[in-house]
Design goal:
Order of helices and strands: HEEE
Mean pLDDT: 76
Number of strands: 3
Radius of gyration: 13 Å
Strand order of the largest sheet: 1-2-3
Largest sheet: 3 strands, antiparallel
Helix content: under 10%
Shape: elongated
Number of helices: 1
Length: 71
């Protein structure tokens, strides 16, 4: 069975989790606090292994224009 675009889209959030210490949200550029829920996603790279990113649950998709933390 062929994979659908939605199944292989690396911009999708994988799940809600807690980020490792020191992670910064790519959407708002603010640190993610300990035990603050966030979304984990990964982006495929041609030069190596995928890059994992964590962003705040309320932040917009960092790939969209005008992204930032919801108010």
């Amino acid at each position: 069975m062929a994979a659908k675009t939605a199944d292989t889209d690396a911009r999708q959030d994988e799940y809600t989790t807690y980020a490792p210490k020191g992670e910064t949200c790519p959407a708002c550029r603010k640190k993610i606090r300990p035990l603050e829920r966030c979304r984990r996603s990964s982006v495929e790279r041609s030069s190596g292994s995928p890059v994992v990113a964590y962003r705040h649950v309320n932040c917009d998709d960092p790939t969209e224009a005008g992204s930032g933390r919801d108010k």
